[in-house]
Amino acid sequence: MDSVQVNRAHWDERASAHAASRGYNIQGFLDDPEYLSEVVRFDRPRLGDVRGLRTVHLQCHIGTDTLSLHRLGAQVTGLDFSPASLAEARELARRAGADIGYVESEVYGALDVLEAGAFDLVYTGVGALCWLPDIRRWAETVSVLLRPGGRLFIREGHPTMWAVDETRKDGLIALEFPYFERPDPLVWDEGGSYVDTDGVQFTNTVSHSFNHGLGEIVTALLGAGLDLTMLEEHDSCPWDFYPGATVEDEQGEHRLAERPERLPLTYTLQARKRNV
């Protein structure tokens, strides 16, 4: 099975359910013109001033983080391979009165629809890299999109977390799945989603994912001409990754209920493209 086709069908089917979900809180964006997504809000102190920056949000899904960057003053373009997700993103932007452009493409085909060297900032949110089979190709794409001196900013699920078997009922942390990148995908068959979709029954239940070690990610960026300027690991993530073993804080972040210092759940990374 082709992973791109499998995953596109998976995301196309979930786009409208995600837009209707309380987890994405579309109504909050429409009610409050200053409302930001939890993902962008978490990293706002690290993100810095993005006003006026030409920004591309890779793997933007239904556009809540994209709209949040726009509200912080960035000139944003969103890119995603799911036409159904882009339809929801465009509708959110329209209803919010936000001037955001969206383009349909896989990440690896971004240069077919976007101009090389045109961006001050490449942004990627949580839960994106795991759908890409080749982290080096991703880093090369990011580098070509950026102008010299431009930066990449990403918050992502930690590869150690992706390797954990979260279905265990005993609360033990067991590393069951690959930490390092492998050529063959992990194949999942799951009927639900990571946010509450009010009992929607999905038919495209199969998805393919790929893990990438933290060293592999950093090495890929260095090899593509970017220099690391920040790498911060977090003991929390914005969803309940291990039901029954986590607690939620007032910001909507989840961490292990017992000794959360044992496990990194997400990380924030920033890198700048070299001037030469």
Automatic annotation (TrEMBL):
Pfam families: Methyltransf_12. Keywords: Methyltransferase, Transferase. The keyword Transferase applies. SUPFAM superfamilies: S-adenosyl-L-methionine-dependent methyltransferases. It is an enzyme of class 2 (transferase). GO terms for biological process: methylation. The keyword Nucleus does not apply. This is Class I SAM-dependent methyltransferase.
